[in-house]
Amino acid sequence: MEWKLFADLAEIAGGREIDVAAEPGDTVDDALEALLETHPDLRDRVLDDGEVADHINVLRNGRNVRREGGMDATLEAGDELALFPPVSGGAVGR
């Protein structure tokens, strides 16, 4: 399974696309744990008291898992996983 990481999460992990040892039948949480095992520097950025921090968005197939079965959702072949930190900024037009 592959995670797509954005913003500072990609910088911390050293890449935007990270393969992990998770497969169909595992849960989103299993895939996240596999990511954090191979990239432990992400742990403090992604988790808060052992749970995914409120400000981190976990997406499965482009949908926030908090609204689509949670971290216990079972992965299927072809699922796309992504982690998004809060994003802000941009230029104001003049």
Automatic annotation (TrEMBL):
One Pfam family linked to the record: ThiS
InterPro entries per UniProt: Beta-grasp_dom_sf, MoaD_arc-typ, Mopterin_synth/thiamin_S_b, SAMP1_3, Sulfur_Carrier/Prot_Modifier, ThiS/MoaD-like
Gene3D superfamilies in the cross-refs: 3.10.20.30
NCBIfam families per record: moaD_arch, SAMP1
Protein name as annotated: MoaD family protein
Taxonomic source organism: Halorubrum saccharovorum DSM 1137
